[in-house]
Every structure is written in C-alpha cells, then in structure tokens.
UniProtKB/TrEMBL annotation:
GO terms for molecular function: RNA binding. Keywords: RNA-binding. GO terms for cellular component: nucleus. InterPro entries: AKAP7-like_phosphoesterase, ASCC1, Cyclic_Pdiesterase, KH_dom, KH_dom_type_1, KH_dom_type_1_sf. Pfam families: AKAP7_NLS, KH_1. GO terms for biological process: DNA alkylation repair; regulation of DNA-templated transcription. SUPFAM superfamilies: Eukaryotic type KH-domain (KH-domain type I) (SSF54791), LigT-like (SSF55144). The lineage of its organism: Eukaryota, Metazoa, Ecdysozoa, Arthropoda, Hexapoda. This is ACYPI008739 protein. Residues 65-133 form the K Homology domain. It comes from the Eukaryota. It comes from Acyrthosiphon pisum (Pea aphid). The keyword Lyase does not apply.
C-alpha cells in the first residue's frame, strides 16, 4: 500500500483512510469492491454529542410510523441549507437518513424533518444547527445590548472635544466630521446579535428578561456612576485607526458585562469576546459609520477597511474627561435606527 495514497472507504458520505497493509493485505480489493454495499447497509452516522444531547424540550412526535420534528429556522439560511441544485439538502438527507422539507418563502419558517429513528432526527437537527451557526457568523449584526452613556454634561464635553479635534487635528489623514458618533448615541456595547426575524427578536427579549432575573437583580449593583475619561484605539498602531474610543473603568460594570456576555453566548446568540473580558468602551470616532463609508466609496460602494491617523488626537487629548454617567437601564438596541429621543430604537429596556 502507498502510505501517501491510502485507499479511501466511503461510508454515508464520510471518507475514511483504510490502513490494511499490516493486518489484512489481501482484503483491500474486496473491501473496495463492496464499499457501496456496506454504505447502504450501515445505519446513519450519528455524532456522539447528538446522542448525549439533552432533548427533553424537543417536540419529536410520531406520524405514520415515522419520527417528525418541526424546526423553526429563519428563511435567511434556507439557501445555505439547500445549496446549489439542492446538493447540500440531498447530502444532508442521505447522511442522516431523513427527509427534510424546506418551506417556501410564503410559508411559515418551519422546517420539517422526518426519519425512521429519533437518532436520525437529532443528527439532522444538529447538522442544520451547525449550518445556521456558520451562516449567522457571516451576517452583519442587527441588535446589540447597550448602556446609554448620555447626559447634558457628557454631551457638552463630547461636542467640545469634537470641535477641538476638528480645529487642531483636522489636517491629519482621514480625520473628518463624518467619523464622529452622534452625541445622542454615545453608549457602551456589551454584546451583539444577528436576529433574523420576529421570532428570534422575541426570543432575545425573553432572554433579556431571564438575564434580569438571574444576573442583574442578584448582583444588587451599588455604584452605577461611571466616569468616562481618557482615549484609546482598537488597534496597536495609532497611525492606522478605525475606532477611537473613550475609556471606562468600573469593576462592577465589568463584572455585569462579562456575565451578560457569557449568558447570551451560552444561549448561542452571542459570539465569544476576543479576550477574557468584554472591552468596555464608548466609541467616539469610527470609520465604519455609514456616512463616512459613503463619502469615500459612494452610496453604492462596498464597505472597505478604512483608517485615520489618530496620533495627534491621542497626544493632545489622551487624558480628556467627558464626565460621569449614572447608569439607569440596559437596552436591546437595533442597529441603524433612531428613536424619537435621538438614541437607537430599543426592542426592550431593563431598568437597573
């Protein structure tokens, strides 16, 4: 046997290297001849995690002697599940020995899975969940959990900072008024979500209520006065900055943010943070703002990775104090929206 080109055994769509040189060298050809027969006779491969998964809350029922599961999935991900020429769907059905019905765009977002055994249903569900999770990671964020950081003093100080930066650093590469956050939208972001339909938004609202009862209230927060002071940027090179932010230091709020992030991460709504803790920051200048991108790329341009030179800004205003904010509530905010008060529209608000 050529060790660099071992024979491949195909079982239920999965490929396994066949090492027979040491134990049964005469069986290679026979095994290869009967690959198809073996594949058809073996049961569907089911991941160990699928079998051990807690599925008490899944409403798998019997219909016509077959197991049936109705799975609510946003239609945003149907194309990924079906694939080109339905190849993904056919492969998924073959792998799990199930039949999967994808609803039309006019029907409710309910995928129907039918199979002979419960294990087959769980295997199909697990694979669909994995496809949706990968697809969700590629979508733009739609909602975020935020702490508004606005009051008259902070707004006045921020507008004064903005004027001084434009006056004294306006000649620096990339620095324009379009980089600045709206003064009524200053906030701390705890975590971000991709919520694709009304059902997912409703679930996020219910989870916010659970978060209030299991995390926020038991913490019995004492100090809700947060000082916003100092500058920093999201990358290590101040000459190539995409986000400039004001720093916030509060052990209690840091603990609260970390617990909320972990809660939604465990619920499969939030991605893990880049470090061990949520980065508490109030964005002041951001090249990702739509108006700035449009000014560079045009209204129909593709978003690009733009930067500006913040060295002079940081040098001059590194210790700038914006003021103290007393936190009163936590919002589930909608991106790219504006409420009547100038802040982001909220799907729900929790009082602290």
């Amino acid at each position: 046997m050529d060790v660099l080109r071992p024979k491949i055994l195909n079982i239920d769509g999965r490929q396994y290297r066949l090492n027979t040189a040491d134990c049964c060298p005469n069986e290679c050809d026979e095994t290869e001849t009967h690959n198809t027969e073996m594949s058809e006779s073996l049961p569907a491969y089911v991941e160990r995690d699928d079998i051990d998964e807690e599925c008490d809350d899944l409403n798998i029922y019997m219909e016509g002697g077959r197991c049936v599961l109705k799975l609510e999935v946003p239609n945003t991900f149907y194309g990924l599940i079906i694939g080109r020429s339905r190849e993904n769907l056919k492969h998924l059905e073959y792998q799990t020995k199930t039949r999967i019905k994808i609803p039309s765009m006019k029907e409710k977002n309910i995928i129907t899975i039918k199979g002979e055994q419960r294990a087959h249903i769980l295997s199909a569900k697990s694979k669909i969940d994995a496809i949706v999770k990968r697809g969700r990671a590629k979508q733009s964020m739609t909602h975020f959990v935020s702490l508004p950081m606005v009051n008259p003093i902070v707004i006045d100080n921020y507008l004064a900072f903005k004027k001084m930066v434009l006056d004294e650093c306006g000649q620096c590469r990339g620095v324009t008024e379009l980089l600045f956050q709206d003064q009524l939208r200053l906030h701390l972001t705890i975590t971000c979500f991709v919520l694709c339909d009304a059902a997912e938004i409703k679930r996020a609202i219910n989870l916010m209520d659970q978060c209030e009862n299991t995390i926020i209230k038991p913490m019995n927060l004492k100090s809700l006065d947060i000082l916003v002071s100092g500058l920093d940027c999201m990358n290590d090179d101040p000459s190539e900055v995409n986000v400039l932010y004001a720093k916030v230091k509060s052990p209690e709020i840091q603990m609260l943010a970390d617990k909320i992030q972990t809660f939604f991460q465990d619920c499969d709504l939030a991605l893990p943070p880049r470090s061990n803790h949520v980065k508490l920051h109030v964005t002041l200048m951001n090249t990702g703002f739509y108006e700035y991108q449009a000014s560079v790329n045009g209204d129909f341009g593709n978003p690009s990775h733009l930067t500006f030179d913040a060295r002079k800004i940081i040098e001059k205003f590194n210790d700038y104090t914006f003021g103290t904010v007393q936190l009163t509530d936590i919002h589930l905010s909608q991106r790219h929206t504006t409420d009547s008060n100038g802040y982001y529209k909220s799907s729900t608000v929790l009082k602290l």
